[in-house]
Amino acid sequence: MQKSSRLAIFALIELASNPDRQISTAEIGDKYRVSSHHLAKVMLTLGRAGLVQSIRGVGGGYSFTGNAKRTTLQDVISLFEDTTVTCKLPDPSIATSAEWEMFNISKEINDISVSTHRSITLSTMLKHIERRDQIRARKASEAANA
Amino acid sequence: MVEFAAKTAPELELLIRKVTIDDLDLVNDLDARITGVDKREYWRDMIDRVATRRAGERFFLIAKPCNDTVKCPALGIIIGEIRGWEFGSDPCGWIFAASVDLDYREQGIGEQMFKAICEEFRAVGTETVRTMVRRDDQINMSFFRSEGMSAGPYTQLEINLNER
Ligand SMILES: CC(C)(COP(=O)(O)OP(=O)(O)OC[C@H]1O[C@@H](n2cnc3c(N)ncnc32)[C@H](O)[C@@H]1OP(=O)(O)O)[C@@H](O)C(=O)NCCC(=O)NCCS
Description:
The structure holds two protein chains of two kinds. The mean pLDDT of chain A is 92. Chain A is mostly helical. Chain A has a single domain, classed as Winged helix-like DNA-binding domain superfamily/Winged helix DNA-binding domain (Arc Repressor Mutant, subunit A, Orthogonal Bundle). Chain A is built from six helices and two strands; from the N terminus they run αααββααα. Chain A is globular. Chain A starts with a helix and ends with a helix. Chain B is globular and about 55 Å long. The N and C termini of chain B lie far apart (48 Å). At the A-B interface, α5 and α6 of A face α4 of B.
């Protein structure tokens, strides 16, 4: 997965988990240790796809405008990269058997990757992140009390 | 089994319990509504098999509404069993069917049935639950993902014998 796709997913997670708040690229950038400049480009693409909306001015920032239960990781990734072409098969009419074998292997791996990303919605991500946060908090408090 | 009273949407309180032969019509009607195929004899055999052979390791649960105002008498079914010893696997819980009435989907019924069957698996000492769904079956894939399942250490392989 490319860096822009990962960033876009993190940004959407931040926005969707804080529906009452506008969040700036600087705040998201700080949290995920990335430049606001790179993030701004990512947000532009997400805005065009109708997943986020920007509000200008003091206290402005971005908010999530998509449907978290219906937006899958694959939907987001495909805004930034072409996941259908993982292995370039030169002109099939002249491709060698070795090239066909490699193509099939790459396609097999890619199919698994795409269907995994397609099966995970933002809302599923949010649910699992929340569960992980709870486990981490519990472990931290157990360690503190030990 | 302790009957499992689960709350989903406020108006949709569920009773999830083991299927008996008296539920045959309900199960068959539910399945026929979903698949469009009447498989009464298949379901009779399935209920019979679960109830009479390795009954302690096979679980066929039905979700019914607690409330009379819900007109659908059977909202969903889930079926699983303890499987093991294939290629060195320890026994694990295996879910091989889950269906929710078309009109009652996305209201938490599947999730409550999943939790109920996992409790059954846990009660007989298994720690891992597995299932197999088509990769391109987005609804089932999303459902099991949402319940916390992810790819396990086994991978499914197949061969088309005509291409050999
Ligand atoms: C899979 C199935 C059992 C889910 O039942 P359900 O009661 O609708 O599921 P739930 O409402 O409990 O949903 C639990 C989670 O699954 C996911 N999910 C369920 N339906 C989904 C859908 N259509 N799209 C994306 N995610 C979905 C969601 O993440 C949901 O959690 P959320 O509501 O918090 O976002 C149901 O869709 C079904 O019966 N499908 C057909 C199954 C089948 O093929 N049966 C025949 C052979 S066994």
